[in-house]
Design goal:
The chain is mainly α. It contains 51 helices and 6 strands. The strands form 3 sheets. It has a two-stranded antiparallel sheet with strand order 1-2. It has a two-stranded antiparallel sheet with strand order 3-6. A two-stranded antiparallel sheet has the order 4-5.
Length: about 1150
C-alpha cells in the first residue's frame, strides 16, 4: 500500500493528463498486487452486503469505513483499501478529485472480478448519506458522490456482470443480481426527485443502465426491464423531458408492454411522437409547469432551473425522427409536424422567452446535419425565420451571437452538401424570409417606444421636468386619439412634424391611449414642487405651475380638435357625450375661481371632472360609452358650487336643491369614486384616491356610511345572484331599446313585424360586416398594402403570397378580437373580485384617516375595520392585514385626536371592543383591540370623561381573573397600565382583591405581575398622595404575608416561581414607599414579620431548596429599616459602598422634604 498512496494525490489534479497517468499507474499496480492473492478455503461471501461473521465485530480502521463490507475476503489489502478510498474521494470538493476518483473507480471495477455489485452499491450508499448537520455544500458533495459512484458501477459493467465469485469449494456468489439492479434504479430516481438540478443527470444514468441491460446476457434481463417500467411509470406519474427520453428507449426494447395504459392520461396515443401528442409534448419539452383543470388531457410536468445546455432528450427524439443517412433505423413519426408544433410554435412563439428561443436555435443546429433535400424545408418555419432575422439584423439583440452561429452552421452545411444550396436559397427568399419583415420591425419598434415612454413617466428615480413630460403626453395624445393628415413642421407638437409611414395600427393607437391613461395615473401619485409667490409647497398630480396633468392633456385635445386641417379625431364622440364634456369643462373653469375654504374640495371636483372627460375621449370605438359618472359629477358640482349661493339677491332654488331625497353632493362624488374602484384600470383607481384625498375635508357622515357599507361581508351566493341580476337587467334594457326603436304603428300585422325584424337583423349584419371590413383594410394599410377598391381580377393579382404572409399576424389578431367580442364574461371569480374591491376601498379609509385625523367621523371607521379583521378568512389575509395596519399604524397612533365627539358613540364602541376582547381567541387580534381601547381612552381623557372606560377595564379585569375561558391576557392590561398609569392606579384595589379570588394559580400570578407593573409606574405618575400609597402598601403587605405563609403551610398550592412573583411584588412596593417617604415607610412594613417569614421559608420542606426566597425577604427587611438622622458634619465614608449608602440616605431625606402635591397631568402620548 505504500507504493499506491502517492498516486491518490494526483487523481485530484486539475490537469487531465496527470489524472489519467495516475489512474493508469494505480490500476496497473493494483492488478499486479491482486494477481498475487492466494484464496483460502474458509472464505465466505454473503450476497447483498458482503459481510461475514469474522469482520462483523471489527471496528473502523484509521483510514476508512468498516471492513464489514467483505472486500478483504477475496482482495488484497491494497485493492480493498483503494476501493474504499476511491468511493470516499467522490465526495471530496477539492479541485478535480471527483472526476479523477470516478474514472479510477470505473476502471478498477471493470478490471477486477473479485467484487459484487451489491458490495459496491452498499459501500457507495453508506458512504454518501445526508446527515442533518451537514451544510449545503456538504450535502451537494455527498449527492454528487452517490451519482458518480452509481454511474461508475454502470459504466464499468459490474451492474450486469455474468461471472461468479468462487468463495469456497461448495458455494459461489453472482457478481450481479436483479436486486442490485433494482437498488441502483431506485437510488437514481430518489436522487432525481431530491434535487431538481440532479434530475437530468440521474435519469441520464438510468438510460445508461438500460443500454447496459440491453447488451447484457444476464438471466434476469427481462425482469429488470419490467421492474424499471414499474418504478418509472407506476410509482412516478410525473412527466419530464427525462421520462420522455426513457419512454422512447423502452418502447423500442419492450414493444409488447401496454404502453397505452402506461402513458395515459398524459398522452392520447401510446407513441409519444404521434401528432395527437405533440401539444402536450411541447409543454413538457419547454419545461414549463402547467396546471391541468380537467385532470385528463394535460400531463403533470416538473419544472427546473434553466440552463443553456440542451437536454439529452432532443438527441433521442431526433434519432427517431431523423435517423440520419448512416443509420439503419427508419424514421418514425412526422418531423414536419413535430418541428412546427414543438419547436416553431412553442420555443419560437412570439410569447416565448429569450431562453426558450436559445434552446430553439440549438435544436435547429442539431437537426440541420440530419436533414435531406426533402426534409430541409421543414426547418425554415415562420416563427424561426422571424426570430432569426430579427436577432441577426442588429448586434445589440440578445440572441445575436447564436443567430450568427446558426448562419455559420448553415453556410458550412451547404459547403459540405452543395446539392442543397438551391433549396436553401428558396427557403431564405420565400414567404418566411420576406422583405415585409421591415414593416413588422417598425411596428415592433413602435411598441417598444410606447413602453419606454411609459417607463420614463413611471420611474420615480428620474427627475421630472414639465417640458419632456408634456412632450410625451402630447405624443401619446396625437397618435392615440388623432390621425395626422398633413404635417406642420413649425408646430410645438413634435408628433405633427411628420406623417407616420406606415400609419399607426388600431392596436398601436389603443396602446397609446392605454399608456396615456397609465401615465396620468402614475403622475397622480407623484409630487411636484409648486411655487406660489415666495412660498413653495408639494402637491400631487400637478405640474410645476399647479395645474393638473389631466387638465393639460385636455387642453392639448382641444387645441388639436380645433386644427382640423392637419389632424382629425380618430373616434368621434356622440353629440350627447360632447355636450356633457363641454359642460364639464365650463364647470371646471368656474371651479378654478373658488378661493374660500372650499378651494381644496373644488380642486378635487376639477380633477374628477377632467379625468372622467379624458376617459370618454380614450374609449375604444364601438364600445358603449357610459356617461352616468360624468352626469352625476356635473350635477353634484353644480349643486355644491352653484354661483347662486354667492349672490346677494335670493333666487329660487332648483328642484335638486330643494328635493329632500336628493343625495348630498359629496355623497355623489364618493359614490362615483367607489364606481371607479370597481373598474380594473389603474388610472381610475389612482384618480379616485387622489380625488377623495382632496374631498376628504368635505366628507359627511352619510359618505362615511357609504364607504363602510362596501366593507360589509356578503355571502358569495348573493354576489352571484347580483351578477346574474345585472346581466338580466342588461338583457331587459336591450329588449326595451329594441321595442322603442321598432315600428311606430302598433297595429301592423304579425307578418310585417317579422319582416321588419328580419330587415333589422340584415342591417345589423351588414353593419358588422362593414366594421370587420374596415379593420381588415386597416391591417392591410399598416403593412404597406392598399386594399382593393374594385371587383376586377387585375387588382386581386396585385397581392402576391409574400404580401399575404406579411399581414398574416394582423389578420389573425382581427379575427381573434372578433371572436372574443362574442364570448360572454362567464367564469369570473366573483368572490375574488369582491376581495380586490374591498382592498381598494380600504385605500379610501387610509386616505381619510391620514388627511382628517381630527375628524369625529374617524370613530365610525373603528367597528367596521374590526369586523373586517375578525371576519376575513385565510384567502383574504391580505385584506385583513391591510385593515389591521390602518387601525394600528394610522388611526390609533395618530397624535391628533377627534374633536366634537359623540360621547355615547365612543362608549358604545369601547363597550364593543371590550366585549370582543373577552371572547376573541387570537393574540394578534387582542393586541389590535387593546390599541383601539387605548385610543378611545385617550379621546375620553382629552375630554375629562374617562370614568366609564375605567369601569370597562374593571369589568374586563374581573372577567380575566375570574373566568377560566376568558380570552383576555395580561398584555391587554399591561398596555393600559403603562400608557395611562395615573388612571390605572384606580384599579389597584380591584387587582388586589381579585388576585385572591383568581380562577387558578396561573391567573393569580398574572395579577401579581400587573400589580408589580402598577407599583413600578408610581414614579411616572408625578407626585401622588402618599396616604393612598401607604394605605394600599399596608394592604399589599398583609396579603403578601398571608399568601407566603399559607404557601409554607400548604394551605395554597403555589410553586417556587409563583411565590417569587409575590415576593418580588412586595419588594417593588417596599422600594416605592421608601422612595416616596424614607422616614415613615418603616411603619408600613412589619420588619419582624418579614424576618420570621424568611426563617419559615428556610425551614420549609417545600421551599428550603429555593435559597432566593429567604434572601428576598431579607432585602425587604433591609429596605424597610428606619433611616437614621444624617448629620451635616459627618465625615465622608471610607469605602465606595458606604459612600453610596450615605448618598442614598441623603437623597431619600431630601426627597421627603421636597415632596409636594401636584395635579395629575393627562396622558397625551
Amino acid at each position: 500500500m505504500t507504493t499506491t498512496l502517492p498516486l491518490f494525490w494526483h487523481l485530484s489534479s486539475t490537469s487531465k493528463k496527470e489524472r489519467l497517468d495516475a489512474s493508469v499507474k494505480l490500476i496497473g499496480a493494483l492488478e499486479q498486487f491482486q494477481s498475487q492473492l492466494v484464496p483460502t478455503n474458509n472464505s465466505r461471501v454473503t450476497p447483498g452486503s458482503g459481510s461475514d461473521e469474522e469482520d462483523g465485530d471489527e471496528e473502523e480502521d484509521e483510514e476508512g469505513p468498516s471492513k464489514s463490507d467483505g472486500l478483504d475476503l477475496l482482495n488484497v489489502q491494497d485493492v480493498s483499501y483503494s476501493i474504499r478510498r476511491l468511493v470516499r474521494g467522490l465526495a471530496s470538493p477539492r479541485e478535480s478529485s471527483r472526476l479523477g476518483f470516478a474514472v479510477a473507480l470505473t476502471e478498477l471495477l471493470s478490471r477486477i472480478q473479485t467484487v459484487t455489485c451489491a458490495q459496491i452499491v452498499a459501500l457507495i450508499v453508506n458512504g454518501s448519506k445526508v446527515q442533518g448537520s451537514m451544510s449545503g455544500q456538504e450535502e451537494r458533495d455527498v449527492l454528487f458522490a452517490r451519482l458518480f459512484g452509481l454511474t461508475a458501477v454502470i459504466q464499468s459493467g459490474l451492474i450486469v456482470r455474468t461471472g461468479t465469485l468462487n468463495t469456497s469449494a461448495s458455494s459461489a456468489t453472482d457478481a450481479s443480481a436483479l436486486s442490485s439492479f433494482e437498488e441502483v434504479i431506485k437510488e437514481l430516481l430518489v436522487l432525481g426527485e431530491k434535487k431538481s438540478w440532479l434530475r437530468e443527470s440521474a435519469w441520464w444514468t438510468i438510460n445508461l443502465a438500460i443500454d447496459a441491460l440491453k447488451d447484457s446476457q444476464v438471466a434476469w434481463r427481462s425482469d429488470a426491464g419490467l421492474c424499471t417500467i414499474r418504478q418509472c411509470f407506476v410509482d412516478h406519474d410525473t412527466w419530464s423531458p427525462e421520462k420522455v427520453a426513457l419512454t422512447l428507449k423502452l418502447q423500442t426494447l419492450y414493444p409488447d408492454q401496454d404502453w397505452r395504459k402506461l402513458c395515459s392520461p398524459a398522452f392520447k396515443n401510446p407513441y409519444l411522437l404521434h401528432a395527437g401528442n405533440l401539444q402536450n409534448l411541447a409543454c413538457i419539452l419547454k419545461e414549463s409547469g402547467i396546471e391541468d383543470n380537467d385532470g385528463a388531457d394535460v400531463p403533470k410536468t416538473t419544472t427546473g432551473n434553466w440552463k443553456p445546455q440542451l437536454h439529452f432528450v432532443w438527441d433521442t427524439i431526433l434519432d427517431q425522427l431523423l435517423p440520419g443517412q448512416n443509420s439503419s433505423q427508419s424514421p418514425r413519426g412526422s418531423f414536419q409536424e413535430f418541428f412546427r408544433i414543438v419547436v416553431d410554435e412553442s420555443l419560437f412563439s412570439s410569447t416565448a422567452s429569450i431562453e426558450r428561443k436559445y434552446w430553439g436555435f440549438q435544436v435547429f443546429q442539431k437537426a440541420l446535419p440530419r436533414v435531406t433535400q426533402d426534409t430541409m424545408p421543414m426547418l425554415f418555419t415562420k416563427n424561426f425565420m422571424r426570430t432569426w432575422i430579427n436577432h441577426l439584423s442588429k448586434p445589440d439583440r440578445y440572441l445575436h451571437k447564436i443567430a450568427r452561429q446558426t448562419a455559420t452552421d448553415v453556410q458550412a452545411f451547404v459547403q459540405s452538401n452543395p446539392q442543397l444550396g438551391f433549396a436553401l436559397i428558396l427557403q431564405l427568399t420565400g414567404v418566411n424570409g420576406s422583405h415585409h419583415e421591415d414593416i413588422r420591425a417598425i411596428n415592433s419598434r413602435r411598441s417598444w417606444i410606447i413602453e419606454q415612454l411609459g417607463g420614463l413617466i413611471r420611474s420615480g428615480s428620474i427627475p421630472k421636468n414639465d417640458d419632456w413630460v408634456q412632450s410625451i403626453l402630447d405624443w401619446l395624445v396625437v397618435h392615440g386619439l388623432f390621425t395626422v393628415k398633413k404635417k406642420i413642421e413649425k408646430s410645438h407638437f413634435l408628433a405633427l412634424h411628420s406623417i407616420p409611414n406606415p400609419v399607426f395600427s388600431d392596436e398601436h393607437r389603443q396602446s397609446c391611449r392605454t399608456r396615456l391613461l397609465t401615465c396620468i395615473g402614475d403622475l397622480n401619485t407623484q409630487t411636484s414642487v409648486v411655487k406660489s409667490g415666495d412660498k413653495t409647497s408639494k402637491m400631487s398630480a400637478v405640474a410645476s405651475d399647479g395645474e393638473f396633468w389631466v387638465s393639460t392633456v385636455l387642453k392639448t385635445i382641444q387645441t388639436l380638435m380645433a386644427d382640423s386641417k392637419h389632424v382629425s379625431l380618430q373616434n368621434n364622440l356622440e353629440d350627447d357625450v360632447l355636450v356633457h364634456c363641454t359642460k364639464a369643462q365650463e364647470l371646471t373653469a368656474h371651479l378654478k375661481t373658488v378661493t374660500d375654504e372650499r378651494q381644496e374640495a373644488a380642486k378635487g371636483v376639477i380633477l374628477l371632472l377632467s379625468a372622467t372627460v379624458l376617459e370618454q375621449y380614450c374609449s375604444d370605438e364601438g364600445d358603449e360609452i357610459n356617461t352616468e359618472a360624468l352626469e352625476a359629477s356635473i350635477d353634484g358640482a353644480t349643486r355644491m358650487f352653484s354661483p347662486s349661493k354667492k349672490s346677494k339677491k335670493g333666487r329660487k332654488s332648483t328642484s335638486a336643491d330643494t328635493d329632500p331625497s336628493a343625495p348630498e353632493p359629496v355623497d355623489v362624488f364618493v359614490d362615483t369614486i367607489i364606481g371607479f374602484l370597481e373598474k380594473s384600470t389603474a388610472y381610475m383607481r389612482t384618480v379616485g384616491n387622489q380625488v377623495f384625498a382632496l374631498l376628504s375635508g368635505a366628507v359627511q357622515e352619510s359618505a362615511i356610511d357609504l364607504i363602510v357599507t362596501q366593507l360589509e361581508r356578503r355571502d358569495p351566493a348573493e354576489l352571484l345572484e347580483d351578477a346574474d341580476e345585472d346581466v338580466e337587467m342588461e338583457v331587459i334594457d336591450d329588449e326595451q331599446d329594441t321595442d322603442l326603436n321598432g315600428s311606430d304603428d302598433s297595429e301592423e300585422e304579425s307578418d310585417e313585424d317579422v319582416a321588419g325584424k328580419g330587415n333589422d337583423e340584415d342591417s345589423n349584419d351588414e353593419e358588422e360586416d362593414i366594421e370587420l371590413r374596415r379593420k381588415i383594410e386597416e391591417a392591410l394599410r399598416v403593412n404597406g398594402i392598399e386594399a382593393a377598391t374594385g371587383d376586377s381580377d387585375e387588382e386581386e393579382e396585385l397581392m402576391d403570397d409574400d404580401q399575404m404572409m406579411a399581414i398574416d399576424e394582423q389578420l389573425a389578431a382581427v379575427f381573434k378580437t372578433r371572436a372574443n367580442e362574442k364570448k360572454t364574461g362567464k367564469g369570473v371569480d366573483v368572490q375574488r373580485e369582491a376581495t380586490h374591491f374591498k382592498n381598494r376601498v380600504l385605500d379610501l379609509v387610509d386616505t381619510f384617516a391620514k388627511k382628517q385625523p381630527s375628524s369625529p367621523l374617524i370613530l365610525r371607521l373603528l367597528s367596521p375595520l374590526i369586523d373586517l379583521i375578525s371576519g376575513t378568512g385565510l384567502d383574504e389575509r391580505q385584506l385583513s392585514d391591510k385593515a389591521k395596519g390602518i387601525l394600528r399604524s394610522r388611526i390609533t397612533k395618530s397624535k391628533d385626536l377627534p374633536n366634537n365627539i359623540d360621547m355615547e358613540l365612543v362608549l358604545t364602541i369601547a363597550s364593543d371592543v371590550h366585549t370582543r376582547a373577552r371572547k376573541v381567541h387570537s393574540s394578534d387580534m387582542l393586541a389590535t383591540l387593546s390599541q383601539c381601547s387605548l385610543y378611545l381612552f385617550r379621546i375620553l381623557a382629552h375630554s375629562n370623561s374617562e370614568k366609564p372606560l375605567v369601569q370597562l377595564y374593571q369589568e374586563s379585569l374581573a372577567d380575566f381573573l375570574g373566568r377560566k375561558n376568558s380570552a383576555l391576557n395580561s398584555s391587554f392590561f399591561q398596555d393600559f397600565i403603562r400608557r395611562h398609569s395615573a388612571f390605572a392606579w384606580i384599579l389597584r384595589n380591584d387587582l388586589l382583591d381579585l388576585s385572591g379570588r383568581a380562577v387558578n394559580a396561573y391567573r393569580q400570578g398574572q395579577a401579581y405581575q400587573l400589580l408589580e407593573t402598577l407599583m413600578s409606574q408610581l414614579s411616572a405618575m408625578g407626585d401622588i398622595n402618599f396616604s393612598e400609597v401607604a394605605e394600599f402598601a399596608s394592604r399589599l403587605q398583609k396579603v403578601s404575608l398571608e399568601v407566603v405563609t399559607d404557601a409554607c403551610t400548604d394551605k395554597v398550592s403555589l410553586s417556587a416561581a409563583q411565590l417569587r412573583e409575590v415576593l418580588k411584588l412586595a419588594l417593588v412596593a417596599a422600594r416605592q414607599t421608601q422612595r416616596l417617604d424614607p422616614v415613615s415607610h418603616a411603619e408600613i412594613w412589619q420588619l419582624d414579620s418579614w424576618r420570621s417569614l424568611a426563617g419559615r421559608l428556610s425551614s420549609s420542606e417545600r421551599f428550603k431548596k429555593s435559597a432566593g426566597l429567604p434572601k428576598m425577604c431579607e432585602q425587604i427587611v433591609r429596605i424597610t429599616k428606619p433611616v437614621p438622622s444624617v448629620k451635616t458634619d459627618a465625615p465622608a465614608p471610607k469605602t465606595k459602598r458606604k459612600a453610596e449608602e450615605s448618598l442614598e440616605t441623603e437623597d431619600a431625606s431630601n426627597v421627603s422634604k421636597k415632596l409636594k402635591r401636584k395635579k395629575i397631568k393627562s396622558d397625551k402620548t
